[in-house]
Each structure stands twice: as structure tokens, then as C-alpha cells.
Amino acid sequence: MRDVIDELAGWWERGEPVAMGTVVATFRSAPRQPGAAMLVGPGGQAVGSVSGGCVEGAVYELGQEVLEDGAPRLERYGISDDDAFAVGLTCGGILDVFVERVSPEDFPGLGDIVADVREGRPVAVATVVAHPDREHVGRRLVVRPEDAEGEGVVGTLGSSRADDAVADDARGLLAAGRTATLEYGPDGERRGEGMRVFVSSHAPKPRMLVFGAIDFAAAVARMGAFLDYRVTVCDARPVFATKTRFPGADEVVVRWPHEYLREEIDAGRIDERTVICVLTHDPKFDVPVLQLALEGPPVAYVGAMGSRRTHEDRLDRLREAGVAEEALAALSSPIGLDLGARTPEETAVSIAAEIIALRWGGAGERLAETSGPIHHHRPEPAPADLR
Fold first, then answer.
1. How far apart are CA 185 and CA 162, in angstroms?
2. Residue 171 — pLDDT band, cuts 50, 70, 90?
3. The pLDDT value given to residue 178
4. Pair 63, 57: CB distance under 8 Å
5. What are the angstrom distances between the C-alpha of 107 and each of 17, 18, 87, 152, 370?
6. β-strand 18-27 against 94-102: which pairing, if any?
7. CA distance 41 to 305
8. The sheet that has 180-184: what strands, in order across it?
9. Cα–Cα nearest to 125, from 139, 104, 105
10. What share of residues in the chain are helix, strand, coil (percent, to 5)?
11. Cβ-proximal residues to 201 (8 Å cutoff; 6+ apart), any chain
């Protein structure tokens, strides 16, 4: 929903019904991830994409049907056959798309969800996309972190048992910034089957911390923003750490790097989605911040810039500081993939490529010289018949 939220909110605020098709599960080489959405709006307008062009026409037609009768649908799209006009994915993937009507009457809480997403407040929407009783399909819970009174859930799936199970699991996904389809028994039984619930997590953007206010940092900050990270550039030197020099950053902080990182860790603002790029290649900055980054809470990535000689010297200094070999093994240094990069912009691409490869399990090889699936995915259960 995030990728079409502005158009969706506009139509909702004007009271104009919209059909929203959302990818709720993918298998093999499906081109879009769960959460990708397409809208069929007033006057037949189409916004967004669920497959990069393969099945949009079929989803568009299904959206028009849903707009007409209001009944949500779950449809599976697989490999197209030999007919060039058949609906399917030529890439060989499979995806499930849930299409529902969205309007102030159908989805009265959407305005609050849009406000949460725009303000960076965590919120998850759990929607029943399949159930033995068709009356349950389309029911939803809106789940937020628990407040002081232990509240934070709006709506119901039909029973307190189902509500409690789904709310607990949705909070876990929200904390990890993950979107997924979960399966339960018809009344929320955890070891059952029959009810499939799509949990769309809208967590705040993952963070990218860039230490070192150098020209390479400006390029990395721009690349981080392009990849939808919330980017912070930090350096102890006020003459270099200025917003003018780093327009691509969300914030520029003048602090000793290790002091800032310690503050962020203590405040709970560092998590498993955070990426840390140390670009100073100066031991008095590098070693203290890298020690914290490697010994602190688990993060997605820690990389450090420098030559191989600088890298070896840095490792010796970190060992002297007491950093264990197991922790040192998580350090990406020299930073980035071997692309032959020379300019700051090329180096930023190589760093981004390494971050992406580690996130999805890619090897960084040329696709033309490999075989097998092009897209890497988190493990998903094998597809079952739609219920």
C-alpha cells in the first residue's frame, strides 16, 4: 500500500471507492514482493503495479468486478502457457493477489493508517484473505505497538482468540519490518489451517548511519535515500558536517561517531534493519565506533572504507580493543563489492550492491554467467490450493 498511498488517500478522502489489488504471497521468481499494490480508481484509472506488467490487465478487470459487487477476491497468477495472450508470469513465478474495495464505508480507519505511515509511526494491517466462511474474508485488524494501557488493536477478525493470535504475530512482524501471509485455523488456531491473514507492516524506514563527512559519504547518502533508508551523516568536524554538503541526508549530526552511536543504541533506535557505513578511515574515529557497531545490538550491515593495508591495521586495533574474532567476521571491509569502482558515485553503488546482496542472499555475480532463479526471496512455504 505504501507505494500508492497518496493516490489511495486522495480518493478515500473524497469518498470515491477504489479497488486495491495487493500482492500477498510470492513463490519462485515473482517480480514484485508482498505488499506491492495496484489501484483501480474512479473513471477506470490505474495506479501502481503488482507484477511489472505481466498480469496487470487481469487484476484491472478483477478490480472492476470488485468495485461493482464489493466482494473481495484472492487470485493466483502463475506461469503463462504457450498462448502469448494468456494471463500469467513469463518469468516462471507465482503470486497471489488480494483485491478489495476501499472507501470510507469499507475501510473507515484508513485515514489514521495513512497518518501513521506519513509520520513514520509503526502500524500493521492484518487482513483475512482466505477463510472457509466467505463472510470472514476482508475482515481486518489494525495493529500498533501496545500503549501504556496494553491497547493498540482496532477491529476484529470475528473472535477474541483469532484477534489475540494475529495481533501478537503482527506485532512481531512489525518489529522486524516484515510483511507476510500467515495461516491459522478458522478460529485463529495456531497449528490449524484454513484462515490466511496478510499482515502488511508499515514500520518506520530502516536507518542508514554514515560516519565520516567526506565526498564519498555524500554519494552514499544519496544512494541510501534512493533505497528508501532514513539517512544520518555524522562527523565530529562542524566545518565538514553541514546540511549544505549532504542534501541527500535526512539529518546531519556534529558529534564524535562513537558517542552518537552509543546514544542511539541506548535509546533503542538501532535495530536489525540498520546499516552502518564507516567512511572516515581514520583510527581515532573508526575504532571506537566500529567496536560499538560490532559488539552492540545486531544490525543488518557494518562496512568500513579503506585500503587493504588500512583494513589490516584496523583489525589489529580492534583486536587490541578486545573485539572478538566472531564479531570481526561481521565487518565488511574493504567496503563494497568488487565493481572496479573509482568515483564516489561508483563506490556508493558498490556499497549499495553489497548491502542488497547480504539482505537477500545474492552472490554479486554477473547474472549472464549464472543459472537458476534471478530473484532471491526469504523462504516461503510451498504454494497450496487457494481456500
1. 9
2. very high
3. 87
4. no
5. 10, 11, 30, 17, 46
6. antiparallel
7. 48
8. 153-155, 140-143, 123-130, 195-202, 180-184
9. 139
10. 35, 20, 45
11. 122, 124, 170, 173, 174, 176, 177, 178, 179
In whole angstroms, what is the distance from residue 186 CA to residue 245 CA?
56
List CB contacts of 352: < 8 A, sequence separation 6 or more: 220, 223, 224, 227
Question: Is the pLDDT higher at 370 or at 123?
Answer: 123
Contact 21, 38 (CB under 8 A): yes
pLDDT given for residue 367 in this prediction: 77
Helix (H) or strand (E) holding 208: strand 207-211
Beta partners for 101? 19
Q: Tell me the pLDDT tens digit for each residue of 1-24.
A: 788 999 999 999 999 999 999 999
| Cβ neighbours for 80, distance < 8 A, ≥ 6 positions apart | 54, 86, 87, 88, 89, 90
Mean pLDDT of the chain: 89
Burial class (CB in 10 A: 0-12, 13-18, 19+), 322: exposed
Reported as a single tens digit per residue, the pLDDT across 94-104 is: 889 999 999 99
Longest Cα–Cα distance of the chain, Å, equals: 69
Model pLDDT, residue 363: 84
